[in-house]
Task: structure prediction
Amino acid sequence: RHDLLRARLELADGEPAFRIAPSIAAADVLTVHGDVRPADGALPSVALTSSPLWRVVLWPAGSASSVLEIVVHHIIADAASMGILFSDLAVALAGRTLPAPASHFADYVRWLESRWQGEERARALREWKERLDGAPALLDLPLDKRRPARQSFTGDTLSLDLDPPAVMRLRELARRAKATPFAAWTALVGAGLGRQ
Result:
């Protein structure tokens, strides 16, 4: 029904590209647990290289209820698309039939690409070039180490464990702002960098 839920990311001519599978098996997405969810249990992660880019986890929560967790990689969903997904899920769980979608993500991409043809694309590029004219080639951010003499784009990973109450506060902040936890983290990092 939703193309991006069947998407995988791969390299095509050295560039990332979505490939949409015709279907996916429930076993590729769904995990059903027999035990109650641990209070401090972490959500499953969804790697950018995985396929599909989302997971559903079902936990028993008593004699007549369950906990359903849906974890979606941010590259295929934002707050608006999650609203659509949850709305569709509510219709399906109520036993009603979902109408055919009015459009698909590929339709939106085609529309967007058609907008960026000819003069409109040239105008937008000129506008951005004017806005960025005179911008520094390299940002002079406060660093705790000197920049290397030769620039490379080699990255690194920094892992840190957050205490569960801090994670819950972040999730609540994101929920109140109708944003994803990723967006809330990005805002917090931006606010932290802004204080430097």
